[in-house]
Design goal:
The protein is of the alpha/beta class and about 240 residues long. It is about 40% helix and about 25% strand. It has a single domain, classed as 2-Layer Sandwich (Thymidylate Synthase, Chain A), CATH 3.30.572.10.
Length: about 240
């Protein structure tokens, strides 16, 4: 099992570098159980995003847009209220204990607390079937939090992660989640925290075979060179702010 570390500037940069790492270094892995049976390329991956707040949060080539990311952050992560869904990440963060409100309260009491972790995965998720139904455990298992130098940093673990279709929305959505989390702490405590780094770990960050051609075209040196230039321009703008 190959483990690779990626350092990225912003959310789109994290997406491209992840796809490139899996495409060039990934292990071939046949998925024989779960939501999809397929050949994949995959890595055990760690990603550090230094400036995840930099806009745009989503590249124009990603298979999602900001409208979807905003819906995902609000409905799937923050509130968790979606009809006909067995569960969402947010529903597990809010019930049976409202972990988000408890975390806000705890940070107002003790900003140096290093023990504030949002648990998404439950013990029963290890079971093949729950309440008689086939069960798919959540891909996002936990979100760990820490305040350092007046910034709130998140460290997230995905047990399985679709690098092409899922990662861009997940990373951008979690950044919006962090901004909302920080905003509530600031509002309730009259503080001036900012969102900090995003760090991700996934033991199985993968590209499906049906996505191989899409990824290969995206990583074409001609196309990739133009996107690197645009990202450099964004970084220059960010440094002047």
């Amino acid at each position: 099992m190959k483990h690779v570390k990626i350092s990225a500037f912003d959310c789109p940069d994290a997406w491209y570098k992840t796809l490139g790492a899996i495409w060039n270094e990934g292990d071939i892995f046949e998925v024989c159980y779960g939501s999809e049976y397929a050949k994949t390329k995959k890595l055990n991956l760690s990603i550090e995003v230094a400036k995840p707040e930099t806009r745009p949060l989503v590249d124009d080539k990603a298979p999602c847009d900001m409208k979807y990311v905003q819906w995902y952050a609000l409905k799937y992560l923050w509130s968790g209220i979606i009809e006909d869904e067995t569960y969402t990440y947010g529903s597990r963060l809010r019930k049976p204990i409202d972990q988000i409100e408890a975390a806000i309260k705890r940070y107002l009491e003790e900003p140096a607390d290093r023990q504030i972790t949002f648990a998404v995965r439950l013990p029963e998720d290890i079971m093949k079937r729950v309440n008689g139904r086939k069960h798919e455990p959540p891909c996002l298992s936990l979100i760990d939090t820490e305040i350092l130098e007046e910034k709130l940093h998140l460290t997230c673990y995905f047990r399985s992660w679709d690098a092409y279709a899922g990662l861009p929305a997940n990373v951008a959505g979690i950044q919006l989640f962090n901004e909302a989390f920080v905003s509530e702490i600031n509002r309730q405590g009259n503080l001036n925290l900012k969102s900090g780094k995003l760090i991700f770990h996934s033991k199985n960050c993968h590209i499906y075979k049906r996505q191989f051609k899409l990824v290969e075209d995206m990583l074409n040196p001609k196309n990739h060179g133009r996107r690197k230039m645009l990202r450099a321009e964004n970084r220059l703008k960010e440094s002047r702010m």
